[in-house]
Structure formats: C-alpha cells, structure tokens
Design goal:
2 strands, 153 residues, single chain
Length: 153
C-alpha cells in the first residue's frame, strides 16, 4: 500500500490545529454543505442528514487524529489508503466551514488563487486563511500522491 509521510513545522501547524478543532466543533451537528431536499419526507430527510453528519464527524475525527501524541513528538503525519479519502473529505468540510464563517468576507477568487494580502488580515482571519491553505495543500498532496488509494486502480 502506498504511503506518504509529511514532516510539518510544529510551531507553524499548532495554531492551525486550534482553527481545525473549532471548525470541527461547529460541524458537530451541521453539515458543511447543507442539504436542500425539500421534496423528501421530513422524517426521512432528518434521518439521512443525521447519518451524513455522523459520517462527516468521523472524517473530521480521523483528520484530527493525525495530529495526536505521535505528531507532537515527530512532526510527521502519515497518509495512506486507509485514511486518505476520509482526510480529503474532512479537509473539504473544514474548508467549507471556514469559507462560510471566518473567511466569508474574502472573495472566492482570492481564496482559491491564494492572492490574499495576509498581512492586512486581522489575526483570527489570518489564522483561518492559513488553515484554509494548509488543508488545501494537504488535499493536493493526497490527490497527487495517493489518488489510486482513493479512486482505486
């Protein structure tokens, strides 16, 4: 099984983990991309949404588990076929939450291009933006190096 290990600079990543954890808490009861399925029966929609929230929470839990005790000892996160797909989904959920929350005032073009004047941002927005970029980079690493682990042969 293909595996990549990423060495991260602890002082740079530690503040971003606080942003990820806060986003994870805000996602605990809500989907990052809410459903708009008004044609479904209310009970069925509520059950389906609860299952999706539970799956989203499990993905985010797995993402956070990458940054446990071992990470703080080595600075390394390991990605492989057993966690890659869930990490990509969790990164997407957190990035969507950041986009609709702390980063809502920034235009999509600036966010996606990275053409943001970081030094002009207030500290909480700067940290959220750096987290947004970090998670995008993590997704790119997975998709560029482990895509067959996610998509299959």
């Amino acid at each position: 099984m293909k595996r990549i290990e990423v060495k991260l600079h602890l002082p740079a990543v530690a503040p971003l983990l606080d942003v990820i954890k806060a986003s994870a808490d805000s996602l605990r009861h809500d989907l990052a991309a809410p459903l708009r399925l008004d044609s479904l029966d209310d009970e069925f929609r509520a059950e389906w949404e609860a299952e999706l929230v539970a799956a989203q929470n499990e993905d985010v839990r797995l993402l956070l588990s990458l940054f446990g005790h071992e990470f703080f000892g080595t600075g390394i996160v390991a990605l492989d076929g057993t966690n890659a797909e869930a990490v990509v989904r969790a990164c997407s959920a957190v990035r969507l939450r950041l986009r609709t929350g702390a980063l809502a005032a920034l235009p999509d073009e600036e966010l996606e291009s990275g053409a943001v004047e970081v030094e002009r941002l207030a500290e909480p927005v700067r940290r959220a933006f750096m987290c947004y970029v970090f998670l995008a980079t993590l997704q790119d690493l997975i998709l560029n190096n482990l895509d067959e682990a996610i998509l299959g042969p």
